[in-house]
Amino acid sequence: MTKRYSCDEISVLISGYLDDELSQQQQQRLFLHVQQCASCQAQLEQLQLLQQSMQQSLPREGATMREQQRIQQHLNEPKSRATRWLGWLLMAAGLTSLLGYGLYQFWQDPTVPVWMKFSFSAFWLGALVVFLSVLRQRLNERKSDRYNKVKL
Ligand SMILES: [Zn+2]
User: Fold this and answer.
1) 45 CA distance to ligand 1 centroid (A)?
2) Are 18 and 54 in contact (CB under 8 A)?
3) From the CA of 32, how far away is ligand 1's center (Å)?
């Protein structure tokens, strides 16, 4: 094999070498060239140093980032839950006052027959009961959520 490798080809081999992807033969080519070529030797040494310093700093940075992410998640989760619960609360409050006002107007209306007043009231009362039971179920789920988290 008399083919001489250009520095461009060697720089490809250098990155392959750093990634531990070279065959025995390719490594030999690389070292043969590097012994005769000062600039490629400098490149190899520089990249090796760079790789070493990255390997030293990366795991630590990664750990810090994971830690930060964990803290962030911890901070975000209760907040989004509180927002959701504020939504539920506002919905409940709005629904209750609307319902109250509507029923009051409805009962004040002399043109509406009494049986209709009763059945409408019963209907809305039923809807309110369903809504409240869903709300209570959500509350229970929230409690068991917390319990599960403690268990984990
Ligand atoms: Zn070279």
Assistant:
1) 13
2) no
3) 10
